[in-house]
User: Fold these one by one.
Assistant:
Number 1:
Amino acid sequence: MSHMDVAPFSEQLYVKGTFNGWGDDTPMAYVGNGVYQAVVCLSADAHSFKITDQQGTEDLCFAADQYKAVDCFLAQPQVVIPAKGIGNDLVFHAPETGLYTVQLAVADDALRMTIDKGGDNAEEEAARTLMAFSFDVAANKQSLAGKGGAVLAPSALFEAWRLR
């Protein structure tokens, strides 16, 4: 993306649906040339969703119809419109469990959403902080907090967990 390529929307967009509890944990990244995308992991099932900002603002809540749910299909662009509401979701029937890339292309004449099989979420995964630890109950049975048990100091707790 060049420094001259400005994202069409100033607000962060998300893919919100049944696969993530309609939460905002699937942000779309602006990749340039009017295109946003997000990678989602879907089970082989029907998934209802919308593309929206965090608050579901009327002008930034996108579906294919004002009033009814619309099926969308793998690798087939679907025109979307600002359409806040209930029951007018996009519905995708994932043919198999796996990663899918949801893309929103903003053009002068229309907004088009496409779902493609596969996806590279390596950048998102690399940014996640991972913590590995082991817990040795046998070594510290008497000093672990419990009913009537002693409370461990942080240093002793970390030693019990053996944080790495």
Note: The chain has two domains: 13-126, 131-161.
Number 2:
Amino acid sequence: MTDVVIHRVTGLDFKVEPWDWPFARERQADIAAHFKERQRAIPALFNGRVLLGRDPVFAAGQLRASYFETDFANLLAWRDWGFPDRSVFNGFGMGALRTADGAFVLGVMGGQTANAGRIYFPAGTPDPEDVNDGSLDIAANVAREVEEETGLSPSDYQAGAHWDCVVTGASIAMMRVLDVGSEGAATPHRGQSRHAGRAGTFRDPAGSLEGRSDGDDAALRHRLSRSAIRRQRSLTPMNKPRLLAAELDPFVSPFRVDGAERFHLKSHKTKAKGGLDKEQGEAIIEQNRKRLADFQEKLYAQDRWSLLVIFQGMDASGKDSAIKSIFEGVNPQGCEVTSFKQPTSKELDHDFMWRSFLALPERGRIGIFNRSYYEECLVTRVHPELLKAEKLPPKLITKNIWRERFEDISAFERYLTRNGTVILKFFLNISKEEQRERFLDRLEEPAKNWKFSMNDVTERARWQRYQAVYQGILRHTSTPFAPWYVVPADHKWFARVVIGSAIVATLESLDLHFPRTDPASLKEFKAVRKALEAEGKGRKK
């Protein structure tokens, strides 16, 4: 956990000066792509101008620093990518609204923001509107944010004489207690905010923060500081794992395809490593294994959702090894892998989705498809003669059959998601050269000889055709409710980082938890515990 330091100051001195931020300049293209991806998920996201700080100094009861203007897209990428440039900090004001009865007012961020659903005091990263005569006015920034988010103006509250500056990682939250004059005035006027969703309170049992010694109010100051820490770390107060979404996003969002734009397979690299080396990647893989095991146990216990994970890819793209690695440590009682081979005669006597339907995961389970119903739009399209084996009425085999199958698959996936099955689809995107090297590896290592088939070489000759068909599949079946992830697969370890991160982030979003025991059962448990303990004592000699 990042160390937290709290400084109490009475003055803030921030000069605003032009500065060419190397991070923003050198990674301009990556930042633009990242913001485009975020905007796809949150269309209302606006790339305005904001202010970030440099060279903070606490001295003589004051905080001094320099600030510079930059695009919000730069700040968002810097935050989402783990604050790679530590010479910069995000310094923002927070108004800790306190009512006459000691309750603090917080708000839930609206769905149109970059921090939707998270809970903070009124706050916001400063922007050029907060600059006056070349200096940043944090007090004015706080007043503006409070009014925008609650409807309260400075005449409705008394601002404290000092600021509690919470320093954590790459952020400094400058918090000031704002005492509302009366209990009735404490309730925000909802519906006026461009940021907030709804308001809530927590109470200060220790009484007034003002007028207390540093030692006496340390505990309360710590409680207030937690709101600032959550703002920078993207945590909700009661759910620490919410950090995972931001932490894993650099390994998820760039590879997600949900149909918002026309898909081109060639625009997706096969050798990407996400800025990681193999050692860093292996550490993330291990962390994701533990997270997945924890989420799977809760998924099983809650018995409401199910997860369907689909793997597709060319021969030797790493499907088998990815499944083995990512799901290592998951309880096999709640997880089942189905490998779809060439259809049997019985399967061919049914519709092309039938065998997949039989293998769908029950509630509380994870189902893993190693290949899937997509083979009937892939291999069958590359080899149209295989349609004859499906015994379809001739008049149904038209030039529209592939479009119709795409429509049927999307309808099927929508049906599943509407009934509680979350679908994640991974296309392991391998280069032809990497496939060649892996085939050679299978030939040279006796322990891998069994994986090689002469048919692999035959199909390799149709590489371009397979790539074109895969592009069509992803182009027509990528949807917001069942997205594809185009996984760079030339480096197996990075493919596992992407797949594991996408699965963990998705499970985290389901708010999984163990079933809560009702009071009546707890009372029964207590009685049973006493009986069992008494039974044990009776056996002792």
Note: The longest helix spans residues 278-302.
Number 3:
Amino acid sequence: IKKYNKKWDFFSNMSADEVEEFIENDIIGHRKTKKMGAHSNKYFENASKISEAIFSSFKGFDKSTINPSLISSKYLNALAVIGIENKDVTLEEVKSKFKKIVKELHPDTVGKNKKNIEKLTKVLEAYKTLKEYHDNFKYSDTV
């Protein structure tokens, strides 16, 4: 068997061009392939249609479509920390109230009082929550 295997030559009946073609096809495992861009690919067309359908459902989404009961408790707690009772407050109103509270509690203006620092920390977190809420819903004039 060893003698037979040593004498056997797979390429013996092939021309030089056929051997070159075999070597080139060996790179891709002798599978048929298509040139890039030569044929349309339905996968990308279908994926594009699906994504357009999904995102088109969000067109026209505005504040009026949000159910008031879906406003998060985190948002309502943040309003309470800053001292605002109106859920439909504008971002400008939140900012002005926030600035006023920060001036009252900031260590540079009233000294280092541990209670004030804790309150200031809560106010900063509340403002961050309100700002994120505004940014996520992209309201032009309200939070």
Note: The chain has two domains: 2-56, 63-137.
